[in-house]
Amino acid sequence: MSQSRRSFASDNVAPVAPEIMAALAEANSGTVHSYGDDPWTGKLQKLAAEVFECELAIFPVATGTSANALALASLTPPFGAVYCQAESHVNSDECGAPEFYSAGAKLIGLPSSDGKLRPAQLAGPIAHAREMGVHHVLPASLSISQATEWGTVYSCAELAALTQTAHELGLKVHVDGARFANAIAHLGCTPAEGSWRSGIDVLCFGGTKNGALAAEAVIFFKPELAREFELRRKRAGHLWSKMRYISAQLVACLHNDLWLRNARNANALAARLAAGLQERGLALQQPVQANEVFAVMPATMISALHAQGFEFYQWPAPPDQPLPVVRLVTAYDMRAEDIDALLAAIAPR
Predict the structure, then answer these.
(1) For residues 340 and 310, is the Cβ–Cβ distance under 8 A?
(2) Angle at the Cα of 292 (from 265 to 67), degrees rounded to 5?
(3) Within the chain, where are the H helices?
(4) How many angstroms separate the CA atoms of 259 and 52, rounded?
(5) Beta partners for residue 58, in sequence order
(6) Domains in the chain with CATH codes
(7) DSSP per-residue codes, 20-85
(8) Would you say 171 and 141 are in contact if contact means Cβ atoms under 8 Å apart?
(9) Kind plus residue range of the DSSP H or E element containing 110
(10) 147 preceded by cis ω (within 30°)?
(11) Is residue 331 classed as helix, strand or coil in its secondary structure?
(12) Left, alpha or beta for 333 (phi > 0: left; psi -120 to 50: alpha)?
């Protein structure tokens, strides 16, 4: 097995999917209008509306950070608050980009042990904010991750309950969907059921972790919320002149359900890995519902696997967990043999 196949560090390390590379090659011919006035971007708008079964506004960007930050800036004024899970990517892994692009909005992290937020967590903080009046930031938006940073997935019922409470409290709902494909593959629902029909206002649809070269999309299910987005994207330097190359990737993702087929493979391999770890006596920190496995692993085992060339990250363990926790991520292009090699290195069956 090649060294690269020993990387479980992230789904970002995977190569571009052949179908997407072929789409890029096809787009790389002739001259077309720039800044999104091209056939691929037009096709993306129509295809996304078909996939999500609604009228929508979709905006391609190249990175997940730009997608999340610009989406939240469109929902949240500079004096506003974004409520999110404390360990969420927008709160802990984007170097203040949401605050920067919103010109000062405040992110307020709410705790949970599994990456999910519950409706009951919202009322108290928002009541406090309103009681404080001008002395507190204005409650404006809720940001959740699907799948979450702990690899867990909100059910459609959980989403609907959470978004209903958020809307009743005057919040718009944003989803960081870097692994949205993995979540939908796990749920087995339609993209519509897993998004706007469950109350989502804005979805950052991830492609890069699922086989794309560099392609994300900000999808507004209420197009009126997108009035400022084009200007914000341009001002932030994220309006590509050669937009066809991002749009072509996203079209290839959505065409014939490539995005879901890729995600199903990654999810199935994560389930195979989780079962094998448990067979070898290792505990899982969270249920495996997407393509991330969080396992409790002795430090000696971690060192031994690293010495054999396996790559993965040690994750911050909860206070009640004395042993280290590691994150193992499966990607769309991995094979059963890659999983079995890691399991064999831990202990033969």
Answers:
(1) no
(2) 90
(3) 18-27, 39-52, 64-75, 89-92, 97-101, 120-132, 156-168, 180-187, 229-235, 244-254, 258-279, 299-307, 336-346
(4) 13
(5) 219
(6) 3-13+263-346 (3.90.1150.10), 18-258 (3.40.640.10)
(7) HHHHHHHHSSS---STT-SHHHHHHHHHHHHHHTS--EEEEES-HHHHHHHHHHHHS-TTEEEEEE
(8) yes
(9) strand 106-110
(10) yes
(11) coil
(12) alpha
Phi-psi region of 53 (alpha: psi -120 to 50; beta: other; left: phi over 0): left
Rounded CA-CA distance 347/172 in Å is 48
pTM over 0.90: yes
C-alpha 187, offset from chain centre: 15
Q: Which amino acid is at 331?
A: A
Cα separation, 34 vs 41, in Å, equals: 10
Q: Measure the CA dihedral 157/292/65/173, to 10°.
A: 10
For every one of its 349 residues, what pLDDT tens digit does the chain have, with 9 covering 90 and above? Answer: 444 479 999 999 999 999 999 999 999 999 999 999 999 999 999 999 999 999 999 999 999 999 999 999 999 999 999 999 999 999 999 999 999 999 999 999 999 999 999 999 999 999 999 999 999 999 999 999 999 999 999 999 999 999 999 999 999 999 999 999 999 999 999 999 999 999 999 999 999 999 999 999 999 999 999 999 999 999 999 999 999 999 999 999 999 999 999 999 999 999 999 999 999 999 999 999 999 999 999 999 999 999 999 999 999 988 888 999 999 999 999 999 999 999 999 987 6
What Cα–Cα distance (Å) separates residue 260 from each residue in 174, 218, 266, 296? 21, 18, 10, 29
Phi, psi of 17 (to 5 degrees): -65, 140
CA–CA distance, 205 with 219 (Å, rounded to integer): 7
Extract the tokens encoding 346: 């831990």
- The two beta strands, 292-296 and 216-220, are unpaired
Query: What amino acid is encoded at 203 in this protein?
Result: L
